[in-house]
């Protein structure tokens, strides 16, 4: 928002768009029918989990199916990646056609990190990350505001616990090392 405000002050037409991989309401177009279908299937013994089960039985069965099958995980990650890339393109298209500078808060690097965090940190999801890069508009410049897990937790203590933020920190470092993204120190004062 500060970058957008600075650009507006300098006379440029700029806008911020936000597309997070895991938060995409249009993904329900695909997910809801699949979840309904899963309700019809007999329940199986749940796979081991690291966290308590959610209240939503539909989500739980889908998650269990993904945990049991690498193929299902890879296919679902393809659907999510495709939907995310299409969302990137759609959310930016009208602004770009109007000649605006589009600042993306969450973009390709974030998609790569979230794919791994959501669907398997041990997996590379090489094809899914390629899909996001291939379909999303190419940025003129890409930046990652790097902050430590500790600072992130101090800023947003309710969103993720410190252990999860340490995982995110590691995943961002790994994914940024293969992406064309400039790292900036996000712990400096805003000015």
Question: Summary?
Answer:
This protein is mainly α and 191 residues long.
Average per-residue pLDDT, rounded, comes to: 84
- Provide the low-confidence segments as ranges: 49-59
- Termini separation comes to 13 Å
Q: Largest sheet, described in full? A: 2 strands, parallel
Helix share bin: 40-55%
The proportion of residues in beta strands is: 5-15%
Radius of gyration: 18 Å
* Helix-strand makeup class: mainly alpha
The tally of beta strands, per DSSP, is 4
What overall geometry do the principal axes of the alpha carbons give?
globular
| Total helical segments | 8
Strand order in the largest sheet: 1-2
Write the element-wise H/E pattern from the N-terminal end onward. Answer: HEHHHEHHEHHE
List the helices and strands and how they pair.
Layout: H1 2-9, E1 14-18, H2 28-40, H3 57-68, H4 70-97, E2 101-105, H5 108-119, H6 126-135, E3 143-146, H7 149-155, H8 162-176, E4 182-185
Parallel strand pairs: 1-2, 3-4
Q: Can you put this structure into words, describing what you see?
A:
- The protein is mainly α and 191 residues long.
- 55% of the residues lie in helices and 9% in strands.
- It is globular and about 60 Å long.
Short key terms for the protein model shown above:
mainly alpha; 191 residues; 4 strands
